[in-house]
Amino acid sequence: MKPEVTGEKYNRIAEWWRQQHEASGYGVEQLRRAVTWVTNRKRALDVGCGSSGRFINELQEHGFQVDGIDISEEMIRHARELHPESEFAVADISQWKTETEYDLVCAWDSTFHLPLDLHEAALKNMCNALAPGGVVMFTCGGSHEPSKISGTFQGEDFEYSTLGIPEYFRLLHQFGCVVRHVEFDQGPTEPHVYMIAQRTE
Ligand SMILES: C[S@@+](CC[C@H](N)C(=O)[O-])C[C@H]1O[C@@H](n2cnc3c(N)ncnc32)[C@H](O)[C@@H]1O
Fold first, then answer.
1. Which ligand 1 atom is the nearest neighbour of the CA of 72?
2. pLDDT level of residue 131 (50, 70, 90 thresholds)
């Protein structure tokens, strides 16, 4: 599914997402773990930030100035309402380029919607946006081979895909990052993984 189509689906559930997730702690412990690797806590980017502003709240508490991008205009409209002090863009992470250097880039449950052929570009853009020593944290499907699935959520059909853990490791190395943490954070029966890596160059 093209990212723009995914964005249209999230447009339709952006308000619901905001109400459901504004106070949600889902992924926050994992975000805090990523923050522990960051020595220079100046600027962070939330990729696929959604409408609830919850990761932005957490990162601001750690002293970051936080920017957000999302492919859904409605998600960004809500995020702007909650965080007028932040800079936002409606953009697909696989196409997005920036001159800004970030000390932390997080993509919680967003890049897993990309079609298989766009994951590499998205990961490259996130790694390229890191300052030296900067940290990237993202979630992905925990298979060992590339795979894709689809599912219905809030009445919308969504697609998900993953390159598989070995390929993310290879790409992170290629893009100048070392892996710091990998975890099946929902246990052995749910193939949901989050990865933390750090730019070394
Ligand atoms: C499951 S929601 C997660 C929202 C937020 N990260 C959270 O945890 O509350 C997925 C978000 O990723 C965004 N997204 C999906 N594909 C994207 C892409 N290619 N580039 C940027 N954002 C994307 C969606 O619009 C949606 O807001």
1. 25
2. very high
